[in-house]
């Protein structure tokens, strides 16, 4: 069976500090990978998605970046965090192909930028 | 801009009653539709998917899709306190698109 791991679960960072969140998927090959952010009281906003190693699509201009150095590894980074980067960050995966493929989420990282 | 809209609630339903959650979407060519349940502080969990017009039942949950009206709903029968959560509607817009667009969610509270 497939599993998705995301860490850390919680993170408190000062403004201007760097960020690195990691996500890995087990039990599948060549998954589509996604980073979402959920701000307090708001919906899920797609930040980045990747359909293969080194292939990153950015949905929202911001001071975040994403990388996919391995097939089942997806990393979200920032060089300098802003207060507005606070939120609940979710990594997700789905099988590539038909649009009816389901999306599965990791356990999330609650990021507080102070 | 392609959108998915939900009433944010909160929606309060007595225990044992039917909870009805609604979602509309803007892109007429949307192909697949999903309902996720999210408990506070947790990640969304897939509970239903539907791809064709009509009803799809799974236990106490029924998803209803009307593509002509661009409307998808979720019914929860015999509501339980454990059903209290935020329910997110997600739509795959654009055939071949690899992305899901989410609504902002409806917060459901089941009153014992």
Report what the structure shows.
The complex is a heterodimer of chains A (114) and B (112). In chain A, a hairpin with a 5-residue loop joins strand 4 (32-38) and strand 5 (44-52). Chain A contains no helices and 11 strands. In chain A, the strands form 2 sheets. In chain A, strands 2, 4, 5, 6, 9, 10 and 11 form a 7-stranded mixed β-sheet that branches. A 4-stranded antiparallel β-sheet of chain A has the order 1-3-8-7, with no helix packed on it. Chain A has strands spanning 3-7, 10-13, 19-26, 32-38, 44-52, 55-58, 64-70, 73-78, 87-94, 104-105, 109-113. Chain B is mostly beta strands. In chain B, strand 4 and strand 5 (45-50) form a beta hairpin. The interface between A and B is medium-sized, with 23 and 25 residues.
Summarize the structure.
The complex is a heterodimer of chains A (114) and B (112). With 114 residues, chain A is mainly beta. Chain A has strands at residues 3-7, 10-13, 19-26, 32-38, 44-52, 55-58, 64-70, 73-78, 87-94, 104-105, 109-113.
């Amino acid at each position: 069976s497939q599993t998705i791991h995301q860490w850390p679960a919680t993170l408190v960072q000062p403004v201007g500090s760097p960020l690195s969140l990691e996500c890995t998927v087990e039990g599948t090959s060549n998954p589509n990978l996604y980073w979402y952010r959920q701000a307090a009281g708001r919906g899920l906003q797609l930040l980045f998605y990747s359909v293969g190693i080194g292939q990153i699509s950015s949905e929202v201009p911001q001071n975040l970046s994403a990388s996919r150095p391995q097939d089942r590894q997806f990393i979200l980074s920032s060089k300098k965090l802003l207060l507005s980067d606070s939120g609940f960050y979710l990594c997700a995966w789905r099988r590539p192909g038909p649009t009816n493929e389901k999306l599965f989420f990791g356990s999330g990282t609650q990021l507080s930028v102070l | 801009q392609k959108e998915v809209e939900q009433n944010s609630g909160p929606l309060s339903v007595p225990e044992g009653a039917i909870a009805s959650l609604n979602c509309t979407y803007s892109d007429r060519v949307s192909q697949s539709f999903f309902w996720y349940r999210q408990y506070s502080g947790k990640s969304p969990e897939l509970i239903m998917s539907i791809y064709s017009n009509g009803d799809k039942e799974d236990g106490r949950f029924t998803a209803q899709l009307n593509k002509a009206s661009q409307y998808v709903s979720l019914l929860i029968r015999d509501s339980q306190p454990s059903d209290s959560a935020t329910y997110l509607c997600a739509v795959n817009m654009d055939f071949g698109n690899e992305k899901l667009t989410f609504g902002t969610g409806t917060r459901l509270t089941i009153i014992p």
